[in-house]
Amino acid sequence: MARKFLYLVAGVIILVIAAGFVLSIWSKELTRIAFVPSTEFVAPRPLDTNAYQKPEMWLSRPGFGLSDPARWQPAIGGQSGMAQPPSQPLQKFAVFFVHPTSFLDRSKWNAPLEDADSQKIARIYVRGMASPFNRASEIWAPKYRQATFGAFLSDSQAARLAQETAYRDVQQSFAMFLATVGKDTPIVLAGHSQGSLHLLRLLKDEIAGTPITKRVVAIYAIGWPISIEHDLPALGFPACATPAQSGCILSWSSFAEPADPSQLLETYQASIGFDGNPRGNSPFLCTNPLTGGIGGTAPASSNLGTLVPEDSISNGELVIGAVPARCTAKGLLLIGNPPKMGSAVLPGNNYHVYDIPLFWANLQQDVADRAAAWNAIH
Question: What is the per-residue pLDDT across 75-117, written as a single tens digit (0 to 9) for each?
């Protein structure tokens, strides 16, 4: 089952194994040399104001039919397929999904939209990570000039400008999304890693305190730590405390045990929160994807389905009850003994790449439940 999803793993191996090897073997300085561009930042020219009216500027959007990667779902019988009929009827809500980093090139600070390799992997990301949202009536996933991987290993002005460039594209695509979906259509915002970072800024700068907040079913900002003290209050939405709650934020960062989150924590502690203060040792939000609430512990029996690839990456299956989930006081999501998910595990038993596949079926159910809860009160 889930052969199409397995291409996600293949693509991620290209991006992550090299990074993981460097992070575990080389010094920080050599890591920067390997991935941080040595060139000056050259600002790409602004996109045309109508750029996102063009279908080719989207990885997923209504009208793509069988070619839409976000409409893929695991099928019964050990096979996988694109745009199969859902097991349940579609629900009326629109998803805006921002994909994670798929560009490692150190010759540029931002990925060109015409870069074939990064676009191919971005499409794979959408297929593997946006597909749990496939009960939505609409799914939109923009292409954008993402910051290269090395931009997150540097605190230089060039790195900040690269991230700003990526955000501006996301901001522009979101404006088009809002202008296109029905005014009474509830919306779900979702992303992973770099995608979540841009999504959180979008919440802070464009959504918090505006009428749009009333339309938001939930925000899935997965794979990016959110400080409960220094980030959450500025975002305009509370953390999701129950699975029946809507208009709230979910986030988690997955580690197997024994976990060594030192690399994540070092970067996090030195970063500046959305309130302008250092995040320091403040705990970050940990949604338990098996319960839909904040923190706590849930056994593997609560896991409705983990998308697990075979070692050969030629096949795989949706496995029920494979992985537990436990939030620590710091905000890490621990998943027990290291599950066999493939070769894209980062140093320290960091399962970042698999944040969504680990809980694929629970995430699919979670968003359906929150959409139903939103509709019940509106």
Answer: 433 444 443 445 578 999 999 999 999 999 989 999 999 999 9
Nearest to 188 by CA among 154, 156, 222, 215: 215
How far is CA 193 from its chain centroid? Answer: 5
Q: What pLDDT, in 10s, does the model give residues 177-187?
A: 999 999 999 99
Alpha carbon 176 to its chain's center: 20
Our CA dihedral for 294, 300, 302, 305, rounded to 10 degrees, sits at 110
User: In the numeric block, which tokens belong to residue 95?
Assistant: 């998803």
Residue 11: enclosing H or E segment and its boundaries? helix 3-25
Is residue 107 packed enough to be buried (19+ CB in 10 Å), middle (13-18) or exposed (0-12)?
exposed
Q: How far apart are CA 267 and CA 269, in angstroms?
A: 6
Residue whose entry in the numeric block shows the structure tokens 């074939």: 116
Q: What are 217-248's pLDDT values in tens digits?
A: 999 999 999 999 999 999 999 999 999 999 99
pTM confidence score: 0.90
- DSSP run (H or E) holding 241: none
Looking at the chain, which runs of residues are DSSP E strands? 58-60, 73-74, 80-81, 91-98, 136-142, 187-192, 216-222, 248-250, 254-255, 287-288, 293-294, 297-298, 306-309, 316-319, 325-327, 333-334
Q: Parse the chain into domains and list their residue ranges.
A: 3-377
231 — phi, psi (to 5°)? Answer: -115, -50
